[in-house]
Amino acid sequence: MEQISQPRVSFITVNFNGAPDTINLLQTIFEHIKSFCFEVIVIDNASDTDEFQLIRHRYPLVKGAHLPKNLGFAGGNNKGLEIASGDYLYFINNDTLLPKDAASQIESMISFCEANPKVGGLSPKIMYHTPRNLIQFAGSTPLTPITIRNKQIGHREIDHGQYDQIVQIPYFHGAAMFVPKTVIEQIGNMPTCYFLYYEELDWSNSIKKCFQLFYFPEAQIVHLESASTGIGSPLKTYYITRNRIIFAYRQRKNSLRLLALSYLILVAFPMHLCLLLFKLKFKLAAAMVKGIWSACRWLMVVSH
Fold first, then answer.
1. Which residues, in sequence order, are CB contacts of 150 under 8 Å at separation 6+?
2. Which of 90, 101, 124, 200 has a 20 to 30 Å separation from 275 between CA atoms?
C-alpha cells in the first residue's frame, strides 16, 4: 500500500452471516495486494450478530458498518459506495478469493480503463473453487427479448486458455465488478428494487447507454458459488422467479414488454411449477409461487 501515486481501489463486499468466508477473502486481499494503495469496505447486511466488529477485530484497517436492516445486494453495495474513496470500485462477493498475482492483475485492469475512456466496467474470468481449473464465467450472451434468459460463456468448461481474449460483454457478473468511480457518478448506483439477483443486469444496461462493458481474462477470481444462498435453494428460486419479471417490466418496452410478461407468467411459470411438483420439490415450488405473487404485487404498484 506504499505507492500513493497509483489510483486507489476500493474493494467493496457485502456480508450476511458469512464472516468466515469474508475473512478468507480479506486474507487474500491483504496478503496479495502490496503494490498500490487500496481500501477494503465490508457492509454487514444485518447479520444475526454484528459480524462487522468481528471482522474488523481481525483486520482493523477495514472500513464499513453493520446495518440494522438487510438492504439486499444492491443496497449493501450502495452503502459501501457512500464510504468508498477509490478511483476504482471493485465490487466482489464475500465468497470469493483473489489469486496470488491479484495486484498485477488489478493494475492491468486499471491500465485498460485508463487507456479506454469508454470502458464502463470489467468482470474478470471467474473460476470455480472445486474442481480446480473449471470456469464459471468467461462472458455471456445477451438476455433473450421475451424469455429473459441467456448463457454464460465457458460455464463448466476446463480452462485451456480458450477464453483468454478481452471481449465486450452485455452484462457484469455480480460476483466481481470493477468499475471506475466516474462511471458511477454519471450513471448512478445499483437499483434496489430487486434485493437479490438481476440488479447487476439492470445496472449493466444503464451503464451501457453511455459506456461499454468488458470481460477481462487477464484478471481472475475464485468463486465459492452460492455459498451464501445454496444451489437450487428456495431463497434463490423465489428471487430469480420474482426478479426476472421485474427485469422484464423495467427493461422491455411496449409490445415487447407485454409479450415478455405474458410468457413469464402464463407459460414459463406453470410449466416450471408442474415440473417441480412432478419431481416432488415442494419447497422450491412454494418459493416459485411466492415469487410470482410478489412480482405481480410489484407490477400492480408501479403500474398505478
1. 140, 141, 142, 143, 144, 170, 171
2. 200
Q: Please give the Cα distance from 44 to 185 (Å, whole number).
A: 24
Cβ count within 10 A of residue 296: 14
**Angle at CA of residue 226, ends 112 and 86, nearest 5°:** 35
The pTM assigned to this predicted structure is 0.93
Amino acid at 155: H
d(C-alpha 30, C-alpha 205), whole Å:
33
* Closest to 66 (Cα-Cα) out of 49, 86, 89, 83: 49
Residue indicated by cell numbers 453493520: 66
pLDDT tens profile 5-32: 445 899 999 999 999 999 999 999 999 9
Q: Report d(CA 94, CA 53) in Å as an integer.
A: 16
Q: Which residues pair with residue 167 across a beta bridge?
A: 215
Please enumerate in sequence order all residues whose Cβ is within 8 A of that of 102, keeping only pairs 6 or more positions apart, or say none: 28, 29, 32, 33, 219
Please, are residues 263 and 240 in contact by the beta-carbon 8 Å criterion?
A: no
Map grid coordinates 466481481 to a residue.
176
Cβ–Cβ < 8 Å for 46, 69? yes
- Residue 304: what pLDDT? 78
